Amino acid sequence: MLDRSKWTFIIVMGFVGLVFNGGITTQAFAQTDGSVILSNRITHYLDGRIGTNNPQQKFSCDQRIHSIIELSELPLGNHEIAVQWFGPSDKLEHIQNFKFAATASTKATGKPVYLSSFIEFQSAGGLTSIFDPSAGLDAFIGDWRIVVLDNEENVALKRFSVIC
């Protein structure tokens, strides 16, 4: 049986080994803060912001659905942002990727980064879609979710519904 002082030495050396072998870095503790707003209309401003006057949670089949992603507290370095749209069957229906680098000057401004992504549905209903707007869109009706990842880490989640 090991005495208490030997256990302390083993635990400290294990932690030091993690730090010096790259197991723990300062980046591991810094996490991007993200939020998502959904709307059928958005505005792009000259200063880089993206906004809307009508955030929504429910959309009809014939609407383009825009997501406004606001990212703050970005750690310095390269970022790969993935915006994933999951349909009612939990199938990944659409993905959009963005790549950029957060530099010291970017961080010094303190301003968040804004991105937008959208999805719209195409009816395969042919002539019947004239009389029934949901024709051919049954697979898209229901509850959806958007997941935003920064370097494969989840930073935002938003749920919404498509109704016809």
What does this structure look like?
The protein has 164 residues and is α+β, with helices and mostly antiparallel strands. The chain has four helices and ten strands, in the order ααβββββββαβαββ. The protein has two domains: 1-30, no CATH class; 32-163, Immunoglobulin-like, CATH 2.60.40. It has helices at residues 4-20, 26-29, 104-109, 128-131; strands at residues 33-39, 43-44, 50-51, 58-60, 65-72, 77-86, 92-102, 113-119, 142-150, 153-163. The strands form three sheets. It has a five-stranded mixed beta sheet with strand order 4-10-9-6-7. It has a three-stranded antiparallel beta sheet with strand order 1-5-8, with no helix packed on it. Strands 2-3 form a two-stranded antiparallel ribbon. The longest helix has 17 residues, at 4-20.
Summary tags:
five-stranded mixed β-sheet; 164 residues; alpha+beta; 4 helices
Summarize the structure.
The protein is an alpha+beta fold and 164 residues long.
CATH level-3 fold name of the largest domain: Immunoglobulin-like
Q: What is the CATH homologous superfamily assignment of the largest domain?
A: Macroglobulin (MG2) domain
In the CATH classification, which architecture of the largest domain applies? Sandwich
- Given as residue ranges, the uncertain stretches (5+ residues, pLDDT < 50) are 1-30
